[in-house]
Records
---
Amino acid sequence: MKRTQRKRKEQLFIWICRAATWSAIAILLTLLFHVMREGIEWLDLQFLDSFPSRKPERAGIKSALWGSVWLIGLTAMISIPLSIASALYLEEYAPKNRWTRIIEINLANLAAMPSILYGLLGLAIFVRYFDLESSLWSGSLTLSLLVLPVVVIAAKGSIRSVPLSIREGAYALGARRWQVVFYQVLPSALPGIMTGIILALSRAMGETAPLIMVGALSYIAFLPEGPSDPFTALPVQIYNWASRPQDEFHGLAAGGIIVLLILLLTLNAGAVFIREKLQRYKS
Amino acid sequence: MLSRWIDHTVHLLLALCVVITILTTLVVIVLLGKESILFFQQVPLWDFLLGTRWEPLLEPKSFGVLPLVVGTLKIVFGSIVIALPLGLLIATYLSEFASTRFRSTVKPVLEILAGIPTVVYGYFALTFVTPIIRTLFPDTQIFNAASAAIVVGIMILPMISSLCDDAFQALPGSLREGAYALGATQFEVAVQVILPSAAARVGAAVILALSRAIGETMAVTLAAGATPQISLGFLESIQTMTAYIVQVSLGDIPADGIEYLTCYAVGLLLFIMTLIMNIIGNHFITQTRKLHL
């Protein structure tokens, strides 16, 4: 093949690659633009402050929004201590042998398990076996199981990146293991762990399937007052509206999506902020 | 003395938390197994795996899971056909051609696609993709496999592009330099040197993405319909394994009815399929990572 021909082929290929990259960005923008265009007219104070209704013009996301806030709060309370403790044990205490390797493979598989299977698990264990019914407890315990492996993996990475010299320095000053772990290792790993937690919680916030499985009702015309109350959540409400044939309800779904995306964006911005702060602090 | 006591207690408490994490997996396996055994006491295993009619909610009941599997495979196939070429091109561009600044801005933007909740993709498929397909092919049904497959493809795209980009970046620079020294063009380096050298990890990325597509739930529930059937067309309504589980749980399910048990039998199949793919995929990635170090 002639050199000019090969050169032309090269240029063409680079252009195709560039076009592919831009098309992915274009898809993202199209999605966001479509949701904005469909949902923006439904988005007002009345929408945020009304319960779901059979009449689209009077329907709102009050109970769904509060349900989601409750859920994420409870999930955070359950999963954060558990996952940090697990990561600390695996990185700082556990011997590196066949068992810990199996645990690591296990964690990777749990993190990739389809979320609907967590729903089946929650339905059989929390809803049926422990008889918690379709309460906030069932929902948040199920979501906790879902985020646990993700946070443990992130926290393990962050703990591993704490320099060994910090531990050695503390031991040299006569600190015990728990003092090294809690006064030295954990504080320096914390920003990384926080980033992992926030990202995992924002994933939990968008989860729909497991909540439907544990029976998050979509018509709830009251606010939950405690963790044993039935609930609905923003993604479940969005699903409910999107699955109806009428255009008005699709508009409502888009309005709900805008609120959900704004919440997720805020959470993610928080994660980025913490990461930036950490990098500046380290350098 | 107190300090030593604390040391032991902390050790024990932390170990306890790990046990909870591990128990989850065991409980999933035991539970799916237990409920599935109850199911298979009523329905023979072979009728389930090889039966071609899935009608568990209507009389006469029939429990052949193949229509759900075919529906799932359609989504998986359609999504990978979209995501693999696009993902490879993006990864090549980011890793081989783009400036570091462009790369570090675009990568997080693509991650946003992965962070959008799946129910949003379902809405997008239903209200944006399906109308477009229906103007192109007027005899398309409202619920169809094509639009669900397209959005699932968009969903797994960042996963493929990011894992492939990592794979390309992990290759030693000498590989490229050697090829350039022999007079190869950038196209030849990317396609004939980089891609074959990273093949194992690209394969792993594809397997992990496929497993993600199999387990995808909300987009296919909203957009692909609820008609379990074995067919080849992408323009008609289907039902996937995940969508069936959601459909049953939306109705009130009696705790001891066969409908409740079918969920767990289908769930077990889903679990086995995704578990095998995840183990193979993760194994490939860790193996090749060791190879390059």
---
Amino acid sequence: MTLPGREAYKDELTALAALDPRIVCLEADLGGPSHPFAERFPERFLNLGIAEAAAVDIAVGLASAGLRPFLSTFAAFGTWRAAESVKLGLGYQQAPVVLVCPYGGVSGGWFGPTHHSLEDLAVVQSLPGVRIAVPCGEAETRAVIQAAADEDRPCYVRLARNEPYEAPFEPAGRGEVGWVSGTGGPTLLVSVGEKPAQLCVAATERRPDLSHAHLCWVDFESLSQAAAELADHARRIVVVEEHRAAGSVASTLALLLPRHEVHSVNAGPSWPSEGGSHDETLAALGLTVPAVLAAAGAGETPAGASVLGASRPARPHAPLTRPAGAPAGRPTPSMANPGATLSPTT
Amino acid sequence: MNDIDLARERALRARGSVVDMAASPAGCHLGGSLSVLDILVAAHTVAESRPGVEVVLSKGHAAAALYAVLHQTGDIEEDPAPRYGRAGGPYTGHPSPKVPGVRFPTGSLGHGLAYAAGWALSRRLLGEPGGAIAVVGDGELQEGLVWETLQIVQAKRIGGLTVVVDVNGGQNDGYVADISPMTDLPARLAAFGFEVAEVDGHDIEKLAAVLVPEDRPKAVLAATVKGKGVPATEGKAASHYVKISPARARQWKAVLR
């Protein structure tokens, strides 16, 4: 049975701790009443309670003494509530603390915006030297936790909630591109995170001419390496991610690839404050297969697009970069402003 | 010369160095540096003879005092005053980890206490001796992070931690008592499971005796005088940040006490 990312994290860290006595597991009251690490290594497990900023700082103190703390809390709290502690400890001090945060994106669904995290990557991405991973599925989550434990570096790991995901691709390591389908054609879908990967898989089923690559490590250093490989395979890149535009992977890739078109399918500007599942909340944000296809410049009119445009605060998927330096007369794709396909009404 | 006499000499020399830093182009947080200086000297005297004891200056704006004291302990070989605040040197207005003897950078208030708690906890997890002495300001206690940390220290029974409060009564905009008074502080700290002591924050001998980290966490309320040692600044809230001329520095150093 495939484990959801959160459970894969707990299981993998417990296994690693058997081999590495430096590993310490810290929770902030959101790890659940039973935890395999606590059962196996109670002396190295501390639930520090609802005090995220102090928890990050205490983890920094432990790391400074040579221990390898893993601290877990929801993404909204680990990044924003404790933002300054993360800046000063993981950023400025480069303390090798691993911050593992479930409830990334809107995986909290009906929990609402207080528990959503559509801005966490922007926070961490702004801190030079902090590694960032958004693993998909059990195998990649385990690989990320192993890599984080092996290296003496600060790290942020964004997970989703409790749904298991059977990733149809091999884990992608740091700086690597995980190819999901196709490696040709002018347009490449790049997914970041489990739901975006599912959207892109569904999109390529309808449009087999599209390629789909998945990225797991999305800090600037990792993206710098991956960008070169992406650039070799497509002129037009559509990044699909469960995050706002600011601080998105799309925005970083746009900086890294000024001669490419980088388009963004992101969570947009709204605050989804209705009930619903993870999928329903994503749909409310416009993160849907039709939106992906529209941004990809599908030949067909994506089903549902008009509904999206009529009833939702649709986002224009305008390119984040102009193809600066592109030769004059370069073929301008008809979807240069694919947001028009969505008929934004607001 | 015994340790305490040596510490007193170090304190006097360090005071002169702080006055020199106030005469730098950047000036320095003079009042709080002079109030906390004897505490830092005592804390480092404790740490020098006990392996694994880390001193963390959580009120990082008193960096001038820390640099001056670390020069006296030999951690910083050069006199930091001529390079204080200047380009090309590590002596920033708040402690930088590039400075020898500084493990945790501080300045944004509250964090140093939590780093110290983490360090103290590491002793237990690693089975190694030592602990931490966190030096905080009385104004700093207004930060929520301080109380989050004290809560965790109590809940997780983190021993080996001494929190010493430099009670100089001042903060950036004036007096603590006028801005956000910290009432019943001994009782508050005791309620968090700390053994509380109140001492003269300029009595290095008593400080050195009471700061030693022990199994039960300790809070030491050290009554100090802002600007201590320079008659022109003693007890004046306006001494919080001072920039003086080299000539004024020579005058002040001539009457240090």
---
Amino acid sequence: MSEPKWDLTRLGEWKAEEFPLGAVIPEAGNSQYYRTGGWRSERPVRDPKVCTQCLLCWIVCPDAAIRVAEEKIADDTFDYDHCKGCGVCANECPVDAITMVPEGCELTEAEKDA
Amino acid sequence: MPEQKTIAATGNIFVAEAMRQCAPDVMAAYPITPQTTIVEEYAKFVAQGKVHTEYVTVESEHSAMSACVGASAAGARVMTATSSQGLALMWEELHIASGMRLPIVMANANRALSAPINIHCDHSDVMGARDTGWVILFAETAQEAYDNTIVACRVAEDPDVLLPVMTCLDGFITTHSIDRGQTIDDETVKAFVGERKPDYALLDTANPVSHGSFAGLGGPFFEFKRSQRDAIDRSKPVVERVGAEWSKIVGRPFGLIETWGLEDADVAVVVIGSSAGNARHVARQLRAEGGTKAAVVKIRCFRPFPAAELAAALKGMKAVAVLDRAESFGAEGGPLFLETRSALYDLERRVPVVNYIYGLGGADVKLELMRRVYSDLSDIASGAAAAEGLRYLGAR
Amino acid sequence: MQQLTEIRWHARAGQGAVTAAKLVADTALELDQYIQAMPEYGPERMGAPIQAFTRLSAAPIEIHCNIEDPNVVVVLDESLLPIVDVARGLTADGTIIVNTCKTPEEIRRELGIDHGHVATVDASGISLATLKRDIPNTPMIGALAKVTGLFTLEQVADHLRKSFGKKFTAEVVDANVESVTRAYREVAAA
């Protein structure tokens, strides 16, 4: 993730004259700086043994939070800084390789096997 | 001083000519009486190759202003024209244009709003849009409509302002009357208005930006509105400065307010638009007859409102009449009255102010009606009558 | 030219009163006069009674309202006389010019006025003879020039040649100039 061109750390204290004219956002692709991972109540977990690498989850993810490396779903699958836990990936997975797990819970070995 | 050409033409033709000389990149327009001949004449300029404007014909005024907003955000110089119901249909985009700080210039042919249906002059349309964040200029004559259009272009694009500007002229009375006036050569106008240099243009692909962003609860919406208020406040000296610069070139006056007979007047009339001449004409007659010594104060720039200038002009008057060509139903009086009385509130000595609603739906502003106003003012000044009540001038 | 001349035109929509009001204003502009010309706009159709106004002055004109007390009234269609009070507000020494075959005396009786001047001219007849169509507006300008002395015949003809010359054939321009000339000569006043 690259660094933003403007320092947004004090955004909440900006005075009227500090904002760009007309509410223009003078930098494209800046949504990466906004971490939406904290919105999650359930997080997706992928079972690599079941996954067929169809990449459908990568296509449907509305937040581009599924990582792909060398045309395959990466081992470090989810970008939890930006995944909002919407569950679209789990819902769309044709082989049920993705499970939504309540935040704060770990899967038991039995659940992983199932 | 550059050579000027004296011509006889309608106010709308003067406006179209001024727009051609400002050479906007985009015009998006929808016809509506009595504005139509502006965009019709402009379409001819485009067809004849006299301008290189992208002329966008749209299906409504809502679309016209939407297209203007898009084009202006893209970095273009944009102009359009409308009237009455058309301006009303643009309402939401008027706020968007000013909030996005887009320097669009729009002529408005002042016309009544339905119902009942009426195509003639009053200021209900523009007064309904007075809080939309646009700079608003008014013309008394076709000549002023020409001058205001060119001044508006510079004011809108001034880096201290960057707000849309509406230039208003009275429907039919100014838009369709053939009047004598002067136009100046294209080169002078071109040099005067210069080129638009946008800070954030959508078409600048090397520097991609987002326009039309969200600023919700807890976000900076409040601060954005504050910066918009600062911008329109800053526009006041800019209107004065640009107006003075234009005035020097063409040799015609340009002021936020324009006063007549102020020096020794006991009473004054405050008025907007084409009726200002009627007020001056009768005031002059009365002075010649040895009657009331009246002044006339014309508001040329309504937004930002020249409150301090107005207070300075009217200070010490024994009675003031404010003439409103629009209603503000349920309020203490018409919009100009509310502004004027508020402007006078901080004066040490109270100035009695009385309000007349006049000329709605094009009702003829007969000279005898103006006489009645001055006669009432004399009575108020002498203490024979009280400055009270909303008066419908000339209504049966 | 006096300080301010106010002309009110009465016609039926389509008879060219607006064009005439503008032509008179343009002619005056060439003489460096200040001018104003405006129709009373409305949703009129062909044949509906309309009014138009022209103001001429040596000084700038600052009033913007209809003409209530005209110095001159021009009536392009005599069928309006029974239905429109064309003489309304006519100044004491004002002039009313009517397109008709009747004499000024007959028209004065019809109007029921005993002040001002009444002039008549068969502008429709002249128009039919010269332009082959009933467009009485241009001949009425010839009559107006003669009766009021606002313009000379040459000034009117020169302006017609200039403005019509841009749009029409020489034949049409000549016919218009002839119609103005005939009306200038044939108008009768009393």
---
Amino acid sequence: MIKSIEKQRNIIDFTLSSLWRRKGKNLALLVVYTLVVFSLGSVMFFTQALKNEAAIILRGAPEIIVQKLVAGRHELIPMASAQTIRAIRGVEAVKDRLWGYYYDPIGRANYTLMVPEGMDLKENEIIVGAGISRVRQVFRGNALLLRTYDGRPISLFIKGILSPESELLSSDLILISATGFRRLFGVSGDDATDLTVTVLNKKEISTIAAKIVDKLPDARAITRDEILRTYDAVFDWRAGIMIAILAGAVLAFLIFAWDKAAGLSGEERREIGILKAIGWETADILQMKFWEGTIVSLSSFFLGVILAYFHIFYASATLFEPVLKGWSILYPEFRLTPFISGYQIAILFFFTVIPYTVATIIPAWRAATIDPDVIMRT
Amino acid sequence: MKSVRNLILFICLLLFTAGSLWGAAEIMPGKLTPTDKCPICGMFVAKYPDFVAQIGFKDGTCAFFDGVKDLMKYYFDLAKYNPGKSTTDIAHILVTDYYSTKLVDGFQAFYVIGSDVYGPMGKELVPCQDEAAAKEFKVDHKGAAILLFKNITPELIKTLDQ
């Protein structure tokens, strides 16, 4: 047992020095390989982290959201509709929500305004997201000056700044009291932006959604699954674009790697011939080639994955920010919660390491089975 | 003397009403733990909170099921699944009401069969707390029939497995 480990150690030792002898070529391979793993890994981490972030936020979302439509556009819904929905069997609770957008010419961005549930805010108090705080340079205790729907200025005191934990959605958020919201936008006390419906039995959600639309023909009922699916589709679509762009790079790498791995150079064939002549067996040579492929591909794999991890979770995905994000203006600094699944790593591994390792073995086996005398003479 | 007698009478009355109150609230649901398995199919029950059903015995033991279908199989063949117990030993049967997902008395519930709602073990008897709910469920989910507990037979359970 110890002897065989010792043997493998010697083979690896030899392989490493043999790799080092052709360092220019092997380092180039390592760099290109690492780059490919890095780009693919970055896209995977990024989309997965975005999806994860969305899922965390949506976990607390209501089962159904009911919105009134006028001419296909979202309108304010009368609070009386809540009674109609409450009468449907299986509905646990119906709550009205107030939210909207405010364009701020000073910050040159759209803010999202929301009336939080179960938070005690006075009429002129607000809580703002970290992005707004940065852009407008306002902090706890300061006042933020906004304009009401009819042009009068209104100053709101900042009671707190939202934690940067999930900046994806809270960066441009302002939490405001219901009365403050109605005053700012001129929304009457009988209306709400939309209604949220809590359902106890998850199996019943789609039936209840259908019943709501049946009873309120001018409304639409959006289920939580639909929102999640939309997020997934949007992120997948963005990832798709990135992969399509990267496909060229991946193909170039494949050709490069195939050329390097499949066709042994004359020097390498000579090396195999000499090793056989001095008494190495075919099996030993195959083991050597296996270790060579493993060393190159594993080190580039780990390097690429680590680099991608830092790129996404510490450097805020600087390289593909414009493509993958970008549906709001106010994300000056944006850090995702690190999230990695074993499944992703496994996919990345099987698409990069395994093919390369396999590709190096076959030509080596071919060379190793030829008579050493013939190899050395060619 | 009279006051003492009155006091005794009062205490007796109090005990009596307390006793009858106790009797009214006698269903004490067994506590489900994550390791409880269905005695019929062997699956973990806690994973399916929408379908949990239970039979509580007078000695305090309790069997949990991942659907009314498995509960009925157990109920009809107690001698096989819980030797030494008979239906007279049963203290309560609780099933999960479809709409409220709360435990309700299994003897009083209304069961809908043939609907498009499937449980962890396939076709199910879906329990509803009252008749109006059962009727609405039958319409919404294309149910075939509404049954009372006493109408459920072993033959019917067999047809659900086909």
